[in-house]
UniProtKB/TrEMBL annotation:
InterPro entries: Acyl_CoA_acyltransferase (IPR016181), GNAT_acetyltra_YdfB-like (IPR027365), GNAT_dom (IPR000182)
GO molecular function: acyltransferase activity, transferring groups other than amino-acyl groups
Descriptive protein name: RimJ/RimL family protein N-acetyltransferase
Record organism: Fontibacillus solani
Classification via PROSITE patterns: GNAT
Keywords per UniProt: Transferase
Transferase is among the record's keywords: yes
A Pfam family matched in the record: GNAT_acetyltran
Domain of life: Bacteria
Length: 281
């Protein structure tokens, strides 16, 4: 794995367009809309790409790497060389055999941990995990039919402001997906439901490329289960329909709240693929 200078990120785009899953988070990195890193098998004519979004999502695609690439990839995903400074979630191109490669690395590394003599909780923390990522397709008619039965709330829903961009807290918030508040104000959009003048739930564009807008959602723990997420997501979907944008949804299958919320909003599961949690080691 060789880190690619950002002026050469365009080299990854032709192969990225052949990957038949949701790759918007990787595309915004390659288009310099958000910070990230790109690693390749060689600099002159790269055919293998590993794209990392600053939020901690990554995508591996292209030709199966050579032996040197595979060796460095193993050290990267297991973080034995301390290259990474955050937990990372990795997707691979399902058209290739990368999932087989990752499954083999996972078994090897986790097997070594089991024999290391570490305490069980330490092994769990350091282990690589294999989860499932789900891509959805949006069905306009299903959404419009479901919308008739959405809960009605008296709380106001407002557009996300620059101030809210800067002050909102949580694990999935606009500031993690946009360079700054000016970038978000120019190219992004979001809606927040306020309860007692505080943000209870927010739906926002986590990525926007071409005519597609990927939806991010965050609801304060104290306000979950009240239907607020449906309301703010509906506001954002209505924005998409008004502006001829395709709303996009993806989540971990293990995140059952997001999985079923998507279906309430007219999304239908289309693709499932492995989703690897890469520990810090």
């Amino acid at each position: 794995m060789i880190e690619l200078e950002n002026k050469y990120y365009y080299k990854a785009l032709p192969l990225l367009r052949q990957v038949e899953i949701n790759t918007m988070f990787a595309e915004v990195v390659l288009n310099h809309d958000i910070s990230g890193s790109v690693y390749v098998d060689c600099l002159d004519n790269p055919r293998t790409f590993y794209v990392v979004h600053s939020y901690g999502m990554s995508l591996l695609f292209g030709d199966l790497g050579n032996e040197a690439f595979m060796d460095k990839l193993y050290h990267y995903v297991t973080n034995q060389s301390a290259t990474r400074h955050q937990v990372e979630w990795l997707q691979t191109d399902p058209a290739g055999r990368w999932s087989e490669v990752m499954d083999s690395m996972l078994l090897t590394y986790n097997g070594q941990l089991e024999k290391s003599g570490l305490l069980p909780e330490e092994i769990e923390r350091k282990s690589m995990l294999r989860n499932t990522r789900v891509n959805f397709s949006f069905h306009r008619d299903a959404y419009l039919e479901s919308k008739q039965n959405f809960p009605k709330h008296g709380e106001p829903i407002i557009c996300v402001t620059k101030e809210q961009f800067l002050t909102q807290t949580g694990s999935v918030i606009p500031s993690f997906f946009w360079r700054d508040e000016e970038h978000f104000a120019k190219e992004g959009v979001g809606y927040s439901l306020l309860r007692d003048r505080k943000i209870a739930s927010t739906s926002f564009s986590s990525c926007r490329t071409g005519n597609q807008l990927e939806i991010g959602i965050e609801t304060a723990e104290a306000h979950r289960g009240k239907g607020y997420a449906v309301s703010v997501c509906s506001a954002l979907i209505d924005y998409c329909l008004e502006h001829e944008l395709e709303p996009v949804w993806a989540c971990r299958l293990e995140n059952q709240g997001s999985y079923y919320l998507a279906q309430k909003l007219g999304f239908r599961p289309t693709v499932t693929l492995p989703y690897y949690r890469l520990p810090l080691g």
